[in-house]
TrEMBL record:
Parts of the chain that traverse the membrane: none
UniProt protein name: TPR-like protein
Organism: Lobosporangium transversale
Keyword terms: TPR repeat
Family under the similarity heading: Belongs to the YPP1 family.
Start and stop residues of the TPR repeats: 615-648
Functional summary from the UniProt entry: Involved in endocytosis.
UniProt keyword annotation of Transmembrane present: no
Length: 716
């Protein structure tokens, strides 16, 4: 664009002199030559005007000129002036994005920029559609003249385009599933015009995470890290940091800051979504090394260090919770506390760091410190549901149930999650899940304080809340929110790339009781095959759950079309199943303690219909038969639970107790020793029964140790 003024005489020193001479020249040509039908020339003049307006920082006028150019270009032949078009669309997209950001800043956050409507006759939704059209035209024009690069070439124009598309996606805040999928497909098409580009892999990684396709994101992450490591070995990392942004794009060189942000995001992916703590720890530790080695003077050093230490602490905590050896587990816990404490030292005003430290301390049963840290988190952000939830659990661990119940009431009122929306849908699914989990804890505390009879009252509301939290939009139309999919592409046969992407099926907002449409493995036979119950009607009586009995159909089912759902949607379905099973088993527990065994059995059967592979279903069934005085059938149920989850601590404790009651001390000791040395180290019941085994075998010192440890766990 900087070359446009060179086309005109140097004596023309002002913007409006440029424009006046340019338009007079255009009008004179029309008058003398009569080339009014030569639309290409009018597009040329519009392009020159746009460049002049940009040169003098008049973005509003430049956008009008760019639009005039684009309108003319729509009528041109497919292969007419593609290079110039691609270049103009690049500046058009950059100008729209810059104008939107500047107007949004002037009008403040929290609302659409009014100046857009005043100056450009546009609203944000229409702007998103226009940007999508410009992106499509830019991509078509550029790819039509771009060949696959040679070994010594970099298609930097493609990289600039993809960077701009990603930036526009962030600025405009497009959040529909179709838009996210379209973005991923755009990056995949760009990968076919580049060769082993780390920049393309980085952008693809972040786009896949946003879409929720975590398995593909992991592959992109691995490829990116291998390529980045190779580039660091070949090139001087310190020299690369001196390059400008445009130079790095043209050379396709990643900065240490960009590599570090990918490492931190990779730690989040592995730790939070994929449950791979070892890989999460590797990413976080590598990010810390990068920051200390290359980014000590970077403007974002504090934020990077805070994030890296935070996710390193989370990774150590995950390793500790899955570690069998007590010595290693203690070491991991200590390192987790150390990393989280460093994170807080760097950014003490970050509430999530205090919450994570409190959670880690709670897992280690350091209740006083955990309580103090949770309160610090709430003092920074009083609307954060997990902090209130953790504080209520910490108080309940001290048997202060009434105070914990009061904390639940206060925390739910402080929550910003809205459950009274007119359309019945949740604005934030994850916040809604936290809210529902908090309400379930409140119901359990209500049971402790007021007894099981009173605890039945809030159950209907819990099922209704479940239907709101896990309800998504109505049936999908597979269309973008801003109409991106409706944009006609000029050379679709050349540009479309099959990526295997699919549209995730949506859910109806109605029913909640069973999720039978979701395919799930059947590890065990039906509950109906255990015991003597042969009831044909598997429904809770209206007196128990009157509202739920009318909601029979599935709330969450896989899409009916032959399309692959995202990892995120599959995980959400699994969480929905788990929560629904929890609600039914909570009802079954209350019915069992009230002596309503038939109702308890029917509630367990409903939980089995949701997810028969959940070990808690069979554990609750075993408790039910044990309460009915049928230890043999209870033992069969416990065995089925352990077949699904061999380290189910509560179930192993019950099996150890059954051996103890039968006088088989050796078997009881083996089961309970194994449990307390592995995942059941914090199971007070297992330590209690182990102490009794030691007492029965006259090992009183060891029995005393076990019983004291059981008491400590029970008090925390």
């Amino acid at each position: 664009m900087g070359s446009i003024p060179a086309m005109l005489p140097e004596c023309l020193s002002t913007l409006y002199t440029y424009i006046r001479v340019l338009r007079n020249h255009r009008d004179q040509m029309v008058y003398t030559t009569g080339f009014v039908k030569r639309d290409g020339e009018f597009g040329y003049f519009a392009a020159v005007e746009a460049g002049l307006f940009l040169l003098f920082w008049d973005q509003i006028a430049a956008i009008r000129a760019f639009r005039a150019y684009h309108n003319q270009a729509l009528s041109w032949p497919t292969n007419f002036r593609l290079g110039r078009r691609a270049n103009l669309y690049r500046y058009f997209s950059q100008t729209l994005s810059s104008c939107y950001k500047s107007l949004e800043y002037q009008n403040g956050a929290g609302g659409a920029p009014r100046a857009i409507g005043e100056h450009l006759q546009l609203h944000p939704t229409a702007l998103c559609l226009e940007v999508a059209q410009i992106h499509a035209s830019w991509e078509d024009s550029l790819y039509a003249i771009t060949a696959f690069p040679r070994a010594d070439q970099k298609n930097w124009r493609v990289l600039v385009m993809i960077e701009q598309i990603m930036e526009d996606h962030k600025v405009l805040g497009s959040s529909s599933e179709a838009d996210k999928r379209a973005l991923v497909e755009t990056i995949y098409r760009a990968s076919q015009k580049t060769f082993q580009s780390p920049r393309i892999l980085r952008l693809l990684f972040f786009a896949l995470i946003e879409m929720g396709q975590y398995d593909e994101a992991e592959l992109a992450l691995k490829s990116y890290m291998e390529m980045a490591e190779l580039n660091l070995k070949v090139k001087n990392a310190a020299a690369n940091e001196t390059l400008s942004y445009e130079q790095r794009v043209r050379l396709d060189v990643e900065s240490q800051y960009e590599i570090t942000t990918v490492m931190i995001a990779g730690s989040v992916l592995y730790g939070k979504e994929l449950n791979k703590p070892t890989e999460a720890l590797t990413c976080a530790s590598n990010a810390l090394d990068n920051v200390h080695k290359y980014l000590q003077s970077h403007e974002s050093t504090s934020e990077l260090l805070n994030s890296a230490y935070k996710y390193q602490g989370i990774a150590y905590g995950l390793l500790a919770s899955s570690e069998h050896e007590p010595e290693k587990r203690s070491d991991f816990y200590a390192k987790a506390i150390e990393s989280l404490a460093k994170s807080i030292q760097i950014l003490p005003a970050a509430f999530d760091g205090h919450y994570l430290l409190a959670l880690q301390l709670a897992e280690m049963r350091d209740i006083p410190k955990a309580t103090m840290t949770a309160k610090q988190s709430l003092s920074i952000n009083p609307s954060y549901i997990p902090s209130w939830h953790l504080l209520a659990l910490l108080l309940s661990s001290q048997k202060d149930y009434e105070r914990a119940l009061n904390i639940c009431a206060v925390g739910l009122k402080e929550s910003e999650w809205d459950i009274t929306q007119a359309d019945g849908y949740s604005a934030s699914g994850l916040d809604g899940e936290e809210y529902l989990s908090f309400c379930i804890t409140q119901a359990l505390l209500h049971d402790k304080v007021h007894g099981p009879e009173a605890a039945l009252e809030p159950h209907e509301a819990l099922f209704v809340l479940y239907s709101k939290v896990f309800a998504i939009e109505p049936e999908p139309t597979a269309e973008s929110l801003y109409g991106v999919n409706s944009i006609q592409r000029r050379d679709q046969s050349e540009l479309d790339v099959s990526t295997g992407s699919t549209i995730v099926g949506r859910l109806h907002a109605g029913s909640i009781l069973s999720i039978r449409d979701v395919p799930k493995p059947s590890y065990t036979p039906s509950i109906a095959s255990i015991g003597s119950t042969t009831s044909k009607d598997r429904r809770i009586p209206p007196s128990a759950t009157s509202a739920q009995s009318t909601l029979i159909k599935s709330a969450l089912s896989l899409p009916s079309v032959a399309q692959r759902p995202t990892t995120k949607s599959i995980m959400r379905i699994a969480r929905a199943n788990t929560v629904l099973v929890t609600l039914w088993l909570l009802s079954a527990s209350i019915f069992r303690r009230l002596g309503r065994m038939e109702d308890a059995l029917k509630a367990i059967e409903e939980a089995e219909r949701v997810d028969s592979s959940n070990p808690d279903v069979w554990y609750q069934l075993g408790l039910l038969y044990a309460a009915q005085g049928d230890p043999e059938t209870a033992s069969v149920s416990f065995s089925k639970a352990l077949a699904i989850s061999p380290y189910h601590s509560a179930c192993l404790a019950r099996v150890g107790r059954s051996y103890l009651d039968a006088g088989s001390l050796d078997m009881a000791e083996y089961v309970l020793e194994t449990t307390t040395k592995s995942h059941g180290w914090d199971c007070a019941e297992a330590w209690l029964y182990l102490g009794r085994v030691m007492e029965a075998s006259d090992r009183l010192t060891r029995a005393k140790e076990c019983l004291w440890y059981a008491l400590d766990l029970e008090n925390s």
